[in-house]
């Protein structure tokens, strides 16, 4: 794992740097890391993680604690350290996001369970509000994953799910608001022109990548409102910080696969620890819904296999409901007692069985040993 502490790039400098790459032979991974290092104005974090165990890697990153100065806001810190607005406020409950005050200890959530499924192209996990990019390495190169916070569709404008791919890349795009969006703005007394040219008023920012999703209006793009990155505020598109999309854009080839998934619960079993990472779930209409214990149960069975683990159900269910996106250790490896000379479980030791999450009740035991 590698967490790169880099300066926050300036957009114009990134354009010049990306153009300069055309005269050099450099891999996409090398370009990406170099783009994240050049052109500074203020410190920022570029989250590039080496997949040292290849596809077996389940968890990347580390949490960070920072102390505020009087001028800080949580939203400034979110952008500086590469997390979304909701991500940092959920990790720091009770802290005023606009006026946290000086000397406050702020958690920057950076430890993540990688989403299940393909380790190729771009993976966007909708409930997590996060994009993962797996650039294709050249021979003998170490595989990496790069991750960025994103905004996704708000409740009445859902982001589509499934597999698609990049069909177009545009620098300094014009925005052609669909009729539905123009109608919405007109109803709110904020009429839109048929075309918004490139510039500071363009909500697409300086870079767009179009997805092969009918009717062709779904994009991965920048923004002129970075404060909202990490929130469900878009009309279905995937919105990134300006410096993030500027770094990602030149490294993503045309035709790159894009996987859009709805995975609010992520579970990993690593070195005898059972980790649970929960995010606020959304349904197929983009509406926030209650967490599903059945979903957690199914993932636990897949993650544990035949391993025997002592699970603290109270703590697991509490994390599921809190849904703060921070991986929590909810279980530890355990051995079921057996009779001497016999590998079968004794009467005092129940037969290993699939995990079944109990309904939370006042009489529920603190932990159970299950397999």
How does this structure look, described?
The protein has helices at residues 11-20, 28-35, 74-80, 85-91, 179-187, 242-248, 293-304, 313-322; strands at residues 4-7, 43-46, 48-50, 59-60, 64-67, 105-108, 112-113, 121-125, 130-134, 144-149, 152-153, 162-171, 207-211, 219-221, 232-234, 238-239, 257-261, 265-270, 273-278, 309-311, 328-333, 368-370. The protein has eight helices and 22 strands. Helix 3 crosses helix 4. The protein has a nine-stranded mixed β-sheet with strand order 3-10-9-8-17-12-13-14-16, covered by helices on one side. The chain is globular. With 371 residues, it is α+β, with helices and mostly antiparallel strands. It folds into two domains: 4-62 and 111-261, L,D-transpeptidase catalytic domain-like (Beta Barrel); 265-370, no CATH class.
- How many independent structural domains? 2
Count of individual helical segments: 8
Order of helices and strands: EHHEEEEHHEEEEEEEHEEEEHEEEHEHEE
Mean pLDDT: 76
Radius of gyration: 22 Å
* Helical residues, percent: 10-25%
SS class: alpha+beta
Strands, count:
22
Can you tag this structure with a few keywords?
five-stranded antiparallel beta sheet; 2 domains; L,D-transpeptidase catalytic domain-like; disordered N terminus; 25% strand; 19% helix; 371 residues; globular; alpha+beta; 8 helices; nine-stranded mixed beta sheet; disordered C terminus
